[in-house]
Amino acid sequence: MKNELVSIIVPIFNTEKYLDRCLKSLLQQTYKNIEIILINDGSTDSSGDILTHYADKDTRIKIISQSNKGASAARNVGLRNACGEYITFVDADDYVEQNMLEKLYISARKNNAEIVVFGGDI
After folding, report:
1. Share above pLDDT 90 across residues of the chain, in percent, rounded to a whole number
2. Which of 43, 8, 31 is nearest to 100 (CA)?
3. Dihedral (C-alpha) 66, 67, 71, 77: value to the nearest 10 degrees?
C-alpha cells in the first residue's frame, strides 16, 4: 500500500472547551501520514491560542485564520489548501477513534473508492 497523504479539515469557531480532545484524537491516529488543516473562522475565545499551542508541537498542523464566514466557507478554504490524496472533515466539537483514518484509508484502497461514507461505527 502506498500510504498516501490524508488531509483532515477542521472548521473552528469558539470551540475552546472541545478543541483539546478533538486535536488529541486526530494526532493519535494510527494512520500517520496526515495533514491537519485547522480553519479558525473568526473565533473570539481562546481557540486561536489552543491551535497555536498544538501547531507549535506538530508540523502536520496548518492553521488558517479568517473572519467569521461560517462552517461551509471554512471547509471550502480547507479544500483549497489540502494536499492529500484523500480528504476528511471533522467538527471541532467531535473526537474520533484512534484507528478511524486507517480503516477509512484501507476501505478506500481496497474498493478503489473515490469516496467512503460511514456512520458513527466503522
Report:
1. 89
2. 31
3. -30
